[in-house]
Each structure stands twice: as structure tokens, then as C-alpha cells.
Amino acid sequence: MVEATQRLPEPRVRPDLDDMSEKSTARIHDPRSRPGRGASLEIVPPKVIFLDIDGVMNNLGTRSEPEGPGMSACLDPDNVAVLNQIVRATGAVVVLSSSWRLTLPLAELRASFAAAGCEAQVVGITPNVDGPRRGREIRAWLDAQPEPPTRYVAIDDQFDMPELPGRLVKTCRVHGLTTRELPQVLAQLAD
User: Fold this and answer.
1) Where does the pLDDT of residue 131 fall: very low under 50, low under 70, confident under 90, or very high at 90 and above?
2) Packing angle between helix 182-189 and helix 77-90, nearest 10 degrees?
3) How many CB atoms lie within 10 A of CB 89?
4) Cα–Cα distance measured from residue 164 to residue 151, given in angstroms and rounded to the nearest whole number
5) Which of 31, 35, 148, 154 could cross-link with 50 by S-S, CB 3.0 to 4.6 Å?
6) SS percent in the chain: helix, strand, coil, step 5
7) pTM passes above 0.85
């Protein structure tokens, strides 16, 4: 968090991206943003995990139907435990790139991750730019940040991401995120 006495830099206005709705952006808004212009100050931690859900945070053995509201039952405890290891080791935050972001509000996604025992701070979602090309959506999110993260990784089970060479860690949908992917993820987020 930024202390009240610390002077924050002036926000950079991106007209092409600032008109996006909250549902399609992954920004942390400064309450001092100028109303009506869509300007915002984005405060991005230095390490970010762009996270898919199906095939990453769950697997073929995970329940497919939630028991209640939200989607916390769709998050497999074993996959959540591996993400927790990554977050503890690196201090990274999560930006959701999953298609779940298009059907559930960010607040509900955050609550579902918390209810499933996830320790990661879910700071946002990628914009809906080009559904079949998640790499473009992640690139759009990165380009919208005045100070992009110093380290980032995309974890997904389906998509190739030529827009992010060397940044994709691909999981197997049969198992989701496991300790097999840990070395590669940790290497991408290492100082």
C-alpha cells in the first residue's frame, strides 16, 4: 500500500484502454483519479502471475459444479496449495486471465479464491481483447501499466502465447498446477 505522505506519480492516460469497464480491466484505481476522463493510477507489484483457472487451478478430478455461489468448489485444494507455495516464495500477486473473468465479477472471483484457501492477492483481470488469444490480452494488460511488473509469468493449460516468449508455463489439464511446474514458475519470478 502507498502511504498517505508519499507523493504518487501523475497517472498516464491511455485513451484506447481507459474507456474499458471495470469488468475488462485489471487496474488498481487511485481514488484521486480525475472523474470523467477514465484516468487512473495503476500500482502494480513487481511480480505478477497471469492465471488461468480450468486446467490450472483445477483438474479432471475436481468437482465441476459449485455447491454454492461463486466458484470456490471448482478450485482444487492441491492446485491451490501449489499456488500458495509460489506466492509465499515470491510475493507475486495474481491477475486472472481465465474465461471465468468474463462471467463472474472480480469481487466474486476474489471471494472464491479466498474461500478455497488461496493466499494470493487477486489484483485484477486481463481485458477482453481477443478471446482465443490470451497472450494478446495479457500483453494489453502489461501495456496499460505505467510501471509494468519486473517479473511475470502466465500459467495456462491450453494457449500458446507468442506475444509473451518464454513467459508461459503450460500445465496439464489432467493434473492442473503441480510441483512439476514449480521450478519453471519460480525461475520466471526470481529476482
Assistant:
1) low
2) 30
3) 13
4) 12
5) 154
6) 30, 15, 60
7) no
